[in-house]
Every structure is written in C-alpha cells, then in structure tokens.
From TrEMBL, chain A:
Stated name of the protein: Replication protein A, subunit RPA32
Family: Belongs to the replication factor A protein 2 family.
Lineage, broadest ranks: Eukaryota, Fungi, Dikarya, Basidiomycota, Agaricomycotina
Stretches for region Disordered: 15-44
InterPro entries: NA-bd_OB-fold, RFA2-like, Rfa2/RPA32, RPA_C, WH-like_DNA-bd_sf, WH_DNA-bd_sf
Residues covered by the Replication protein A C-terminal domain: 191-270
Pfam family, any one: RPA_C
MF terms in GO: single-stranded DNA binding
PANTHER family in the cross-refs: REPLICATION PROTEIN A-RELATED (PTHR13989), REPLICATION PROTEIN A2 (PTHR13989:SF16)
Compartments (UniProt record): Nucleus
GO biological process per UniProt: DNA replication; double-strand break repair via homologous recombination; nucleotide-excision repair
TrEMBL record, chain B:
Originating organism: Macrolepiota fuliginosa MF-IS2
Molecular-function annotations in GO: damaged DNA binding; single-stranded DNA binding
Superkingdom of source: Eukaryota
InterPro entries recorded: NA-bd_OB-fold, Rfa2
Cellular compartments annotated: Nucleus
GO cellular component: DNA replication factor A complex; site of double-strand break
Subcellular location, principal: nucleus
Alphabetical UniProt keywords: Nucleus
Protein name: Replication factor A protein 3
Length: 276, 107
C-alpha cells in the first residue's frame, strides 16, 4: 500500500501546484543545493507508458525530472523487449509497449553480488514482455531508464493492469484522489485518530470512501488502533459492536479487504493489520 | 510519436489501421495452413497470416503485425500469453486507450 500512498502524496504536491517550482528552481542554486527541492515524488514510483516517457523533461542536469509539470521519481514500464545488447559493463534493452519505445540500461555489477545479479537478469530474452523499474537518466540528448529491476511478465493481465494503472495515476495526479473534497487536496488520512471513531466514520472522505460501509468501519477502527502487530477479529467484532453484525458478514468483509489488499494477516489468520 | 507505434487493437479498430502495425491480443480458434483464425478481444474473428518460425503455443497470444485488410493481419511476431487472459479486461483497456479523455497518455 505504501506505493499508493506515494501516489496520493505526490498528487497533493503536484496537482495542487505546490512544492515543485519548475520555473524558479534553476536559479536557486546558491540557496539550497538539492535537498529542499526534493519532494516525496522523487522517492515514489510512477507507472508510465512509453509515450509518457517520451514526454518527460529535465530542465537542466541537476533538476528533477517531470512529466507535464509533475515531478517524477522512479518509473515502471511494462513492454516487450525488442532487442538487447549485452556489453561487459552494461546491458541495453529496447522496450516497446505499442505506443513508443524506451531504452533501459542495466549497469552490471552495481549491487556487489554479480552472480546473483546475473542469475536474476538471466530470464530476460528478446520478444518477451517484461516489467522494468528504475529512474530516468540522460546521456547526451538521449533519455533512458536506469533499470534497477526487470522481470518477465508471466500473467499477461499485468499488461492491461499496467495501462489502467498509468491512466489511474495520471488522472489522480491531475485531479486529486476520487472523493477528495479539494482537487489535489491534503491527505486526510491520519489527520487525527479521533476522526476515526466508528460513529462518524462515514463522514470522512478519503481513499477508503468507496468501500462498502462495513468494510469502511473495519478500516477506520484499525486506523484508530494503529497496531502493526494486527488486531484480533474478536476485538474488531466487539468494537463494531452491532447487534445485527453476524460472523459471516464480518468475515466476508474481512476477506474482501484482504483480497483488495487493504488488510493483511499478521501472526495468524485471525489477526489483521492495515497495509499502509 | 509515429515511430515504433504498434497500438493494441480489437477487431473493431482494424479498419482504422490498414497498412499500419498493430498488436492484437486474441484467442486462437483454428489453424488453416499458413494462417490461423483468432478471436479478438471484442469477439470479432480475424485471420492472421503466419510467417516462418512463428510459434503459437498458448490459448491466448498477441499478434504483432501489419493490417492488410480490416479482417486480416500479416504477422511479424507472436507473443504467447498463456491460457489465462481476461479478454474482456483487455477489450475494456483497449477501448479506454482510444477514449479522448485518455488518449494523451497513450498517443
């Protein structure tokens, strides 16, 4: 869930036109060397299409990369390996997703454990679909992805997933999260645990607002507990404490939350914690 | 960006791409000598003309090739996509790509 939080977080900064001053930053070199300009976005991973990759820009050598005015850190792309060239120090992969082409470079031997690294990258062949992640780099006038991770796609629904995720994230960065009162507004989650008492839970508008009422109540109770080791299902049931709450409904709501990735089991299958 | 363009399509989109390169995620129905009949994600049947060394193994494949007429694709490459692919999801994704609200992300 943390990666999604990053999306939401960067949505606040970028969408609202806050932190990242595209025009101003090149001239503030004397004041703040790097540091203060680096936002949350530079540490987050954004799924992009190769077409979006073509549109990324870097105003000057030390500036953060941006895509349509929104700062961009790490990126992840899904596409087909069209060609690969293996040199001693680096491997070059040309990857297409149907909308353009990106070059991904992997510098060999950067992790210190070369054998494990070779093993990890050995599954990559020409013609297959891969997911590649890394940060943007340029050399001369050429942009490439400095790949830190690449693996073959084995479930091909991932290809569709990737395109849909690209669209979702782009929309979210432009317009803010669904249901957020202000476009690109602040992150309302965790604004204070008292806001998450079960009674007024339904008034809160955030990333969980689209869930079914019972699921929301469970989430908001767990947010208020803030217990990383997990909360027992019995405690959840007592906290929601409704007469009409039968065990079956509760367990199917919990299952749904597990399936959607909002929760995970901790010490055993009766303990639940929030994935965030 | 016309360079390296091979957009994903369903059968309904093929008439717009005659002479162009496309990617057609599809389900293989039957083989007929040097060609095969496939079902595109929107359910339409498409004939794909295979070349030498094309290796269709799986139930679902992605055909990369040139559209010769609205129901025929001359294959340049074939990617095996296993036997579990949600073609409806694929089709919805394809339709989204051509939705004016989203085209700037893809084209």
């Amino acid at each position: 869930m943390s990666q999604y939080d990053s999306y939401y977080g960067s949505g606040g900064g970028g969408g609202g036109g806050g932190g990242f001053l595209q025009g101003g930053s090149p001239f503030s070199q004397t004041g703040s060397p790097g540091g203060t300009q680096r936002s949350e976005a530079s540490m987050s991973m954004r799924p992009i299409t190769t077409n979006q990759f073509q549109k990324t820009e870097q105003p000057h050598g030390d500036a953060p990369w941006s895509l349509e005015g929104i700062e961009i850190g790490h990126v992840t792309v899904v596409g087909q390996v069209i060609s690969m060239q293996q040199h001693t120090t680096n491997h070059i992969y040309n990857i297409e997703d149907g909308f353009g082409r990106v070059e991904a470079r992997h510098w060999v031997g950067t992790t210190g454990n070369t054998e494990a690294e070779i093993e990890k990258w050995s599954g990559i062949e020409e013609g297959i679909y891969v997911r590649v992640s890394g940060f943007l780099k340029s050399f001369g006038n050429k942009k490439y992805i400095n790949a830190s991770y690449m693996r073959p796609v084995t479930d091909f629904n991932e290809v569709d997933f990737h395109f849909l995720e690209c669209a979702t994230v782009t929309m979210m960065l432009e317009r803010g999260t669904p249901h957020s009162a202000r476009a690109g507004g602040q992150k309302t989650v965790g604004a204070g645990s008292s806001a998450y008492q079960v009674n007024n839970a339904m008034d809160t508008q955030d990333e969980y607002s689209s869930l079914a009422p019972l699921q929301q109540q469970i989430i908001r109770f767990l947010v208020s507990q803030d217990n990383k080791d997990g909360v027992h299902v019995g405690v959840i049931a007592r906290a929601l404490g409704k007469a009409d709450l039968d065990a079956e409904k509760l367990s199917s709501a919990l299952d749904a939350l597990l399936d959607s990735g909002h929760l995970f089991n901790t010490i055993d299958e009766n303990h639940f914690a929030l994935s965030r | 960006m016309s360079e390296h363009l091979s957009p994903r399509v369903n059968s309904a989109r093929l008439p717009n791409f005659v002479g162009k390169t496309v990617r057609l995620p599809c389900k293989v129905i039957s083989f007929n000598g040097p060609s095969a009949k496939v079902q595109a994600s929107d359910g339409g049947e498409v004939t794909v003309v295979l070349g030498a060394g094309m290796d269709i193994q799986d139930t679902f494949v992605e055909i990369v090739g040139t559209v010769t007429d609205p129901t025929t694709i001359k294959t340049m490459a074939c990617i095996n996509m296993g036997d579990k692919l949600d073609l409806k999801l694929t089709n919805d994704t394809i339709e989204m790509m051509y939705d004016p609200r989203f085209t700037k992300i893809f084209f």
